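Dear colleague,

Thank you for sharing your sequence with our group. We've completed the structure prediction you requested, and as agreed, I am returning the results in plain text so they can be pasted directly into your records. Please verify that the sequence below matches your submission; if there's any discrepancy, let me know and we will rerun it promptly.
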Amino acid sequence: MQHCVLTFVLKPKVKILLNEVQSTRCCSAGESRIHAPSETVLAFAGEDVILPCSFNVTTKDDFPTVEWSKEGLQPNVIFLYRHGCETYEMKNPAFEYRTSLITKELKNRNISLRISNVQLSDGGKYQCMRLWSNSHIRDITTLELVVGAVSEPKLSFVSSEAGEVTLQCEANCWQPEPVITFLDDQENVISAEALQKDENPSGCYTVRRAVTLQTDTNRVTCRVHQPNINQTRNTEILIPVVLFHFSPSFLSTLHAACLQVNPDRSQFFRYDYISLTCKDQLNSTSWKVKRNTSEGGVTACSFGWGFISSGSTCIIGNIYPSDTGVYWCESAEGEQSNNINITVTDRTVLLESPAGPVCEGAAVILRCKPERTSPDHMFTFYKDGRPIGSSSTGETTIERVSKSDEGLYTCSVAPGVESTGSWLAVEDSLTPSSSAPAAASYSVSRLMCHLLVGTPYLLSTILLGLIYRDRNRAARLETGRQGSNDVIMETVV
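Please find the predicted structure tokens below.
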């Protein structure tokens, strides 16, 4: 069977489009001309590659039969072009639908072969043979295809004991086998454990290496490098100082994500907008928002609901009651964050309360929000079915919340016009280990969320303060210079 491409009448050209070493002697009928040296082409698994080959026209009407083959294959033909058509009968099945010539380049004597979706097994020696019908001369060009495989490494927190922090870096499916190096925040190499590797059935390597940090460093970089194909991938992890000072039971929570809901409440009206973000102090990009609903079961964001806006943030616009369910963050390894219950109601009033647990001692504000406001509304709040107070503003505050305040809260704006219930969870305070500096007690989940959200603002404030200080110093120095000829030296501590 043949599939015709195009037949061209070629006009002789002097220019050669592809670099190719031509034979320096003429051959008698039936002999081959082998063009050397062979060329090496680098490709990466999953991508496309072009193996270069071209020819010089001897007569304007003579287009050669082009046979591409791979050494070691049976059958070894991966592409055969003759009489203006591709011939399929002799083609190796492993290259079916994956090899082709560049049609628009045939008129330029360019018979380079495109291989689509390169596989690791495609690596090896290839031969481009041109057979001339009028002279029985065979021109042969040999090439070697080197196929590499790379992926982005993952650096994760493993454990912390007695002031030592253990991290692990893993790179999946590399070919050839790479090396892993750890660097501290000063770009110094950190001594690590021996490299562990597994060879996959496809022929690539999954490598992993662990490192234990015994001294404070605020950043660690994992560098995966393969010198033969000159490929390097880096990933880094920011390490809070608390990792070296807090107890293992506290540190075990740091690698888990914190699911944040914006707006921070658990009840929503139909058609409202929700943003859900997975915050992780150690690795914020590997988490996905998932949910479990009565109608859809367990699914991830963007699989029939929501869309991923950036990183680990999931946006749900125009929500419906069918979006009611339990939401959480989940990593590729199956680790899960805190759960948050989201309720989408068709009632005319809802209760705004914190979506996640609150820590003991905090002040909690509850708001009763009607779909349509009225000056005649009198808002009543209930806990476990019992009224706990009324308000004309629609707000009530629980000062210094405690475990006894945990329960199911509702509100109403008129008799029979009541919201659905929201559970208010209160977490015990957590005190750091004795080796840590004295600190206030926080709930674990709230502490992590505050650290993740507040740190950038704190750093920005410090930076602005330093800039302001330096500007004041510069102004004082300039004033001193204008009023005196003395040399002023200022020591900055």
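Summary note from our side: The two ends are 84 Å apart (CA to CA).

Kind regards,
the structure core
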